[in-house]
Amino acid sequence: MEDLNNKADKQLYCYKYPHPSVTADCVIFGFDGYKLKVLLIKRDVNPYKGSWALPGGFIKIDESAEEGALRELREETGLEGAYIRQFHTFSAPNRDPRERVITIAYYALVKMQEVKGGDDAAEARWFAFDELPQLVFDHDQILRKAEQSLRQQIHFEPIGFELLPKQFTIKELQNLYEAILDVRFDRRNFYNKMKRLEMLEQMKETVNPSQKKEAFLFRFNREKYEELKQKGFRLEF
Amino acid sequence: MEDLNNKADKQLYCYKYPHPSVTADCVIFGFDGYKLKVLLIKRDVNPYKGSWALPGGFIKIDESAEEGALRELREETGLEGAYIRQFHTFSAPNRDPRERVITIAYYALVKMQEVKGGDDAAEARWFAFDELPQLVFDHDQILRKAEQSLRQQIHFEPIGFELLPKQFTIKELQNLYEAILDVRFDRRNFYNKMKRLEMLEQMKETVNPSQKKEAFLFRFNREKYEELKQKGFRLEF
DNA sequence: TCAAAAGTGTTCGCTATACACCCATGG
DNA sequence: CCATGGGTGTATAGCGAACACTTTTGA
Q1: Mean pLDDT rounded to a whole number for chain A
Q2: How far apart are CA A195 and CA A200, in angstroms?
Q3: Which of B88, B89, B99 lies closest to A2 in CB terms?
Q4: Over chain B, what is the mean pLDDT?
């Protein structure tokens, strides 16, 4: 299946067999302290101009899918080197009405506080999961699958911390895990467990988000985590 | 990025921008009662003719990646409707020296006993993980990633049973989990735990694989498992 | 009669869970 | 002074890990 380039003639790229287009789409997760959110953009091109969609675009011929996803992410949020993870590739023959498009889907975990508007003029907005708008193509399916993958992955890697600011209260951490896993924990047990695990480093500073008692700030200690993991430890809830 | 078909001219498919080829590759896992194995084929085409590779091939323009993977699997092993799962898509720009090829990788769990030779003339052989040959392209990387994904997935789904015959002894089940997770369990604790979980159905028949005491055969009870799962239970080891 | 493998039972320690309690703050 | 939220301690039940015992069978 050789690449029979035939550029002289109208700058076309020609192949003996039909080739699909390949895109990278990004499900960008954020956390506002209470709820898990996802960043969507309003399409400024047809088809479905004006509809909400996942950020994404065509993969350039000399970049990997991951590089493509990171590029899209940067263009959309201004973030460099965010945590991204490939979770599924969607390839139903008719998922795009124009031509065959296969999309390699990534989810990104970003700190909402650090996201400024991207270069792109397109409107972007954070949505909670219970107020999602209608999405184009199969993007709702992609979103569901991303959520499911995140939920699984969080059992094996401390990825939750990517969604929190550098320093956070244990209450915030608990809210995050509750939002992702859709469960409720006893506040005191969660607190005790985190202290016992010793992968959080307590700061001297406190913060006062509720106007009530001051709360300690913590920082994730990756070295300590890796050390624990070595000894066959898994992050479980 | 419209599909500028231009078939009149030498049956070529032409596009305004370069398009990659897309293949589906299959990591076929089997279990012989003691060790996890993987099915490889000897390439009968260039490049790397005669080298060992993962079974796979180009996705047809009107089939999904999953359909493609199932087709490859059928051609290679003669198996219909085996358990397959997409685990990663490999897209490094130079992973194939000929042209840009993106591959959507699946792993398949098959019962070794049911695998006959496929239609394809190509030679196929089962390999244990400690006797893998040199593989073409980035297939060794794909294989490693498949192993890793299987290891994770087995915590969430009872996929191990796809690798065993319909009826099996608890000893065989233990060997399987030990092989996949690379751990050792106490024989008696494993036995007790399986009995307690009640997702295995004990048969009347016994079997005598070791020429010693007779061993009971068991069958996986999917209904019971789904019931347990509903109540927030997870398959853990 | 001895070794190997299957099946069952028991004990112990850890941890998940369910709580009670105290402190600080704002209204 | 009381409602709210943060931080710490404690009792209990259940499960996992370690291991003893019995039975069956082939050599």
Answers
A1: 90
A2: 7
A3: B99
A4: 90
φ, ψ of residue B49 in degrees (nearest 5): -55, 135
DSSP summary character for residue B156 = T
A75 Rama sector, left if φ>0, alpha if ψ -120 to 50, beta otherwise:
alpha
Task: Look at residues A148, A159, A139, A231 and name the one whose alpha carbon lies nearest to residue B157.
Answer: A148
Instruction: Please give the pLDDT value at position B42.
Output: 93
CB A21, CB A93: distance < 8 Å? no
Fold of A21-153: Nucleoside Triphosphate Pyrophosphohydrolase (3.90.79)
Using only the alpha carbons of chain B, give its radius of gyration: 21
Using the structure, give the distance in angstroms from the CA atom of B189 to the C1' atom of C12, rounded to a whole number.
15
Q: What is the pTM of this model?
A: 0.93
| B contacts of A88 (beta carbons < 8 Å) | 86
CB contact under 8 A, A64 and B100: no
Check CB contact of B94 with chain A, cutoff 8 Å. Answer: no
Q: Which fold has domain A159-230?
A: Arc Repressor Mutant, subunit A (1.10.10)
B63, B67, B114, B123: the active-site residue: B123
Q: Residue B76 carries which side chain, given as an amino acid letter? A: E
Residue corresponding to tokens 């070595």: A230
Domain spans in chain B, listed from the N-terminal domain onward:
21-153, 159-230
Q: Are the C-beta atoms of residues B22 and A18 closer than 8 Å to each other?
A: no
pLDDT of B192 over the 60 cut: yes
Angle between helices B170-181 and B187-197 (to 10 degrees): 110
Torsion sign, CA atoms A17, A100, A143, A50: positive
Q: Which of B62, B90, B99 to mutate to test the interface with A (most CBs of A within 10 A)?
A: B99
B227 is catalytic: no
B142 contacts chain A (CB < 8 A): no
Of A19, A93, A98, nearest to B21 by CB-CB distance is A19
